[in-house]
Write a structure and sequence with these properties.
563 residues; 5 strands
């Protein structure tokens, strides 16, 4: 179909096709419905078996055929074009992943069917007895969901499509954490109503037993079956995943060099900022270790949750009306402590479509009770305000003007992570990082995103470390070298570094989207500023940009430049 193809008055619009796809997707994936706040059936879980995966793939193919047949309306203001391009690109990228059998080796410490089964309970409504009845029903669906997941992994073994051994080892450790004591599900239902106590406890026991059975199978059958499998994915698989996460076909060597250029730029800034804290220091990470013990910190888990809430509330008050124009429901965001047993990185969950569940930031404590502020401020500008929350909550706010697909299920990781990294930089530009301690923490976070580009591309493609590197120039990247390099250039503790490396190995191409997405957002802003000159208004541009809905990096710069 050409983008200039016309449609009749009675033909559906691309938005109609996209939203019908969301409705059919929710029927097959009720977890997606829970995140959207659309109660198709809160008591179900997806079919993660090969048959269930094939049914999802057929939905995508059928939707693509419909999209190709309808064309675009003659009076399109760009909304339908953007929707059609996004839907076509996303479904094509998802089908490429499916057709390559990638879903049959979906083992990761951060994102997999296993994690989806657990995490969905943290966003389910629990305000009424009916809500808790839905929880019990969904808990009883856990065994079948995990059996389907196990069947897909077994099919992957049969087809010689193994997950990486390190992924399996890490997930086994996570499962051990989830099974400790009464089990994660048992702890979750402890807050349920007394009238449903027996039903909830029984359902949680069934779900916990299914987790234990999966862990035994992973340890006894799957782990031996993937022993010796490569941890890295190679160029062909990496390019496929990079398209999936970034919404564009990347020049991977150019992106690798960009990562190095940012590494050198940021390192120079870090040394200058570190010198303001310890004048004789030449190693900025030594200064960060000093700040771990002697810098500003928040003591206590409940205290850090409240402190982060205050930081976001302060940012909303300061930015609304000056650099953003926020609807009342977008202003609301909650700080939460993440349940134990997950990855080390903080994360965000968006609001439901009706905002009955607000956007939430989640802090994994990893057993800590003391939290250095340098490591929190920029991260919460990223996860909360003006980062993920302002973008994703604004998308939900304008969903009726765009489509549910563009503002929810069609999200492109690099667009969203790129905005959040841009948001960190914006807060630095606006002077919110008001001392060397906080600014060094911001630069450390920027450095982490640059080293992600370097090691993620470098180790999966087996590239050579360049001569201008201060670290092992001329050697070829391996996961071991990547972990050593990352640890030497991060203020994070060793368990965080280990968790991050496992994440990159299990989600190839995802971690590079932060820096490459930020570059796209900055390029779009700079182009719009040049085009408008003195008439450029940051507040208007921000709100127009955040109201576009999802875009892949193929389209993001062009659309932002035209605002």
């Amino acid at each position: 179909m050409s983008d200039t193809t016309q449609t009749t008055d009675t033909a559906p619009l691309p938005r109609d096709v996209a939203d019908r796809y969301v409705g059919e997707l929710i029927a097959l994936d009720p977890v997606a419905g829970t995140y959207l706040g659309i109660a198709d059936d809160e008591g179900r879980l997806p079919d993660f078996s090969p048959d269930g995966l094939a049914e999802l793939a057929e939905l995508r193919r059928r939707t693509l055929r419909t999209l190709e047949a309808i064309g675009l309306p003659v009076d399109d203001d760009g909304t339908e074009r953007r929707c059609a391009r996004l839907l076509r690109e996303r479904l094509t990228a998802e089908l490429a992943v499916h057709d390559a059998g990638e879903e049959l080796r979906a083992v990761s410490n951060l994102s997999s069917p296993l994690h989806s089964v657990r995490t969905v309970f943290t966003v389910m409504p629990t305000g009424s007895e009916q809500d808790w009845q839905n929880v019990a029903r969904r808990l009883r669906a856990v065994p079948d969901a995990l059996a389907g997941y196990r069947a897909s992994l077994a099919e992957g073994l049969r087809r010689d499509l193994p997950a990486g051994p390190r992924q399996v080892e890490t997930v086994l450790g996570q499962l051990a954490e989830w099974l400790r004591g009464e089990g994660w599900f048992g702890s979750f239902v402890a807050d349920g109503p007394d009238a449903l106590r027996a039903d909830l406890t029984s359902a949680a026991t069934e779900a916990t037993r299914a987790l234990a059975e999966l862990r035994s199978w992973l340890a006894d059958t799957y782990a031996p079956g993937v022993r010796g499998a490569p941890e890295t994915v190679g160029r062909e698989r990496y390019a496929r995943w990079a398209r999936y996460w970034n919404g564009t076909d990347l020049d991977l060597e150019e992106a690798y060099e960009y990562g190095w250029s940012e590494y050198h730029r940021i390192h120079t800034e870090m040394r200058a900022e570190a010198g303001k804290i310890l004048p004789d220091a030449t190693d900025p990470w030594r200064v960060l270790r000093y700040l771990d013990d002697h810098g500003e910190a928040v003591e206590g888990v409940a205290e850090v949750r409240d402190w982060l809430q205050g930081l976001m509330d302060e940012a909303v008050s300061a930015l609304d009306g000056t650099h953003f124009e926020l609807a009342d429901r977008v202003r609301r965001v909650e700080s939460r402590i993440a349940p134990p047993g997950g990855a080390a990185a903080p994360y965000y969950t968006p609001p439901s479509l009706d905002f009955s569940r607000p956007g939430r930031t989640w802090l994994p404590t990893m057993g800590q009770t003391r939290f250095p502020v340098y490591d929190l401020v920029s991260t919460w500008y990223h996860e909360g305000v003006p980062g993920h929350h302002l973008q994703l909550a604004q998308w939900v706010h304008v969903a009726d003007r765009l489509s549910r697909y563009q503002t929810t299920a069609g999200g492109v990781s690099a667009n969203m992570e790129g905005w959040a990294l841009y948001a960190e930089r914006l807060m630095d530009e606006l002077g919110f990082l008001h001392n060397a301690e906080r600014r060094l923490g911001y630069l450390d976070a920027q450095m982490m995103r640059s080293t992600r580009v370097i090691v993620d591309i470098g180790m999966h493609l087996g590239l050579t470390i360049p001569k201008h590197s201060p670290f092992r120039p001329g050697e070829r990247w391996t996961p071991e070298l990547a972990q050593e390099f990352f640890g030497a250039h991060s203020g994070r503790p060793a368990d965080f570094v280990e968790s991050e490396l496992v994440r990159y190995l299990g989600l190839p191409g995802q971690a590079i989207g932060y820096k490459l997405g930020e570059r796209a957002w900055l390029a779009g802003r700079d182009a719009a500023r040049r085009a408008r000159g003195s008439a450029f208004d940051a507040k208007s541009w921000h709100m127009a940009a955040l109201s576009l809905g999802s875009l892949g990096l193929d389209d993001l710069v062009a659309e932002l430049s035209a605002l």
